[in-house]
Specification:
- The chain has 14 helices and 15 strands.
- It folds into two domains: about 160 residues, Alpha-Beta Complex (Aspartate Aminotransferase, domain 1), CATH 3.90.1150.10; about 250 residues, 3-Layer(aba) Sandwich (Aspartate Aminotransferase, domain 2).
- The chain has a seven-stranded mixed beta sheet, with helices on both faces. Strands 1-2-3-13 form a four-stranded mixed beta sheet. Strands 11-12-15-14 form a four-stranded antiparallel beta sheet, with helices on one face.
- With about 425 residues, the protein is α/β, with parallel strands linked by helices.
- It is globular, with a radius of gyration of 21 Å.
- The relative contact order is 0.16.
- Bound molecules: 4'-deoxy-4'-aminopyridoxal-5'-phosphate (PMP).
- The site of 4'-deoxy-4'-aminopyridoxal-5'-phosphate has 16 residues, from helix 4.
């Protein structure tokens, strides 16, 4: 197969002409990528980059089993959920088998935003409330309702949306339930009834928070006491990434009423879902119709089934645990030698490195974190930036990431941290 080698500057010029400026590129020197395989991305010059950022290709870029599943299903049948067909049912059964028995039904969507939007609608219809609690730098999606629940994106909070501080420090985690209780009181004082608590179970945009286990439970209790529901947004944390459980809420011993998932679900093919208690969906269906043309189409379902199969057969959750622990402990020893690394947080292959200000550099922490991410890119390792102050390097690779990849990342990170600004 011949691969076209587009000229980077002409791609940049065409992009500026035809795409809205809301489409933003990563890195000071944007990458022109022509192909990908496993944990590697290849640019137009044939240079390879270690992908330590992309969680969507959870089983590795262009995994043959997923490509094969998509191709063969596309040549047999691709339709929607208004006919009796095998793939959406088989996928729903296989997904439900990974979740607690209390969560009994699936609604398919194409994006995480649609899944969260639907979860919000279910909460409103079932509880009769209109109020939602989120963390103060969360991201939950791009629809109008969810832009109002995604302070990371800078839009104003939606009507009835209240925030609690993301528990970045251990003391905050211990009082998270109390914060939620006070938030419910504030809401009540303005005459708003709580419908739900919506949390990304790894707090990705807030800066990655995995510890201490169990800190969600008191908050969920407060919500249930006033008739609200708990939505676990697993779009980031789900599908085995955290290493010791398939879903982020499980690490906290929590039981959600509704679970949303997407991103890695089709390894790059757009498929997402809302899973929840059957009684909630029954009540919702009594009062509302719902149809999503492409949600649950046979090809997307075939892709997602292949993803679940590969995660199981290649023991990728176990790999996330093994490689993640290796990387976390190596990063913690690096932090002892490197004062620029303020804190290492995370679980499995979802890691946040919080950087501190280095006064001698003359850079703000935001500029310093960006500088390191750009230096890593120049050195052939892709990481991202997150957190309220842009102070956290986000490491979230495909789950096929091995110890040898972790070693390369560690070597280049140490060099990038030491590079003079
Ligand atoms: N929830 C979380 C936690 C996310 O990170 C995202 C996407 N970044 C979404 C929801 C929305 O997913 P999508 O982009 O597929 O609509």
């Amino acid at each position: 197969m011949t691969i076209p080698h587009p000229d980077r500057s002409s791609l940049l010029a065409r992009r500026a002409r035809v795409l809205a400026p809301t489409h933003r590129l990563f890195y000071d020197q944007p990458l022109a990528i022509v192909r990908a395989e496993g944990v590697w991305l290849y640019d137009e010059q044939g240079r390879r980059y270690l992908d330590a950022y992309n969680n969507v290709p959870v089983v590795g870029h262009c995994h043959p089993a997923v490509a094969q599943a998509i191709c063969s299903q596309a040549s047999i049948l691709n339709t929607h959920t208004r006919y009796l067909t095998e793939e959406p049912l088989a996928l729903a059964e296989e997904l439900l088998a990974t979740l607690p028995p209390e969560l009994g039904n699936v609604m398919f969507t194409c994006t995480g935003s649609e899944a969260n939007d639907l979860a919000v609608q279910v909460c409103k219809v079932v509880t009769g409330g209109t109020g939602f609690i989120i963390t103060d730098f969360a991201y939950h999606g791009s629809s109008d309702a969810l832009a109002g629940m995604s302070p990371e994106e800078g839009a104003p909070l939606g009507a009835g949306v209240y925030t609690v501080r993301a528990p970045l420090r251990r003391g905050d985690a211990a009082s998270f339930g109390e914060q939620v209780r006070r938030c419910i009181e504030r809401m009540r004082a303005t005459g708003v009834q709580l419908a739900g608590l919506l949390l990304d179970t790894i707090f990705s945009s807030d800066g990655v928070i995995a510890e201490p286990r169990g800190f969600l439970e008191p908050a969920i209790r407060q919500v249930r006491e006033v008739g609200g529901l708990f939505i676990a947004d697993e779009v980031q944390a789900g599908f085995g990434r955290l290493g010791d459980s398939m879903w982020g809420f499980e690490r906290h011993g929590a039981l959600p009423d509704l679970v949303t998932m997407g991103k890695p679900m089709g390894n790059g093919h757009p498929i997402a879902a809302l899973v929840g208690r059957a009684d909630l969906f029954e009540e919702f269906a009594r009062r509302r119709h719902y149809f999503n043309t492409f949600g649950g189409n046979n090809v997307s379902c075939a892709a997602a089934r292949a993803v679940l199969r590969v995660i199981r057969e290649e023991r990728l959750m176990q790999n996330a645990h093994r490689t993640g622990n290796y990387l976390l402990s190596a990063l913690r020893s690096l932090a002892e030698r490197q004062p620029a690394l303020r804190e290492v947080r995370g679980a499995g292959l979802f890691i946040g490195l919080e950087l501190g200000v280095a006064p001698e550099s003359g850079l703000s922490v935001r500029a310093q974190t960006r500088r390191v991410a750009n230096a890593m890119r120049d050195r052939g390792v892709l990481v991202g930036v997150t957190g309220r102050d842009g102070e956290v390097l986000k490491i979230r690779p495909p789950l096929t990431f091995g110890v040898e990849h972790a070693d390369f990342l560690l070597q280049e990170l140490e060099r990038a941290l030491s590079d003079s600004p």
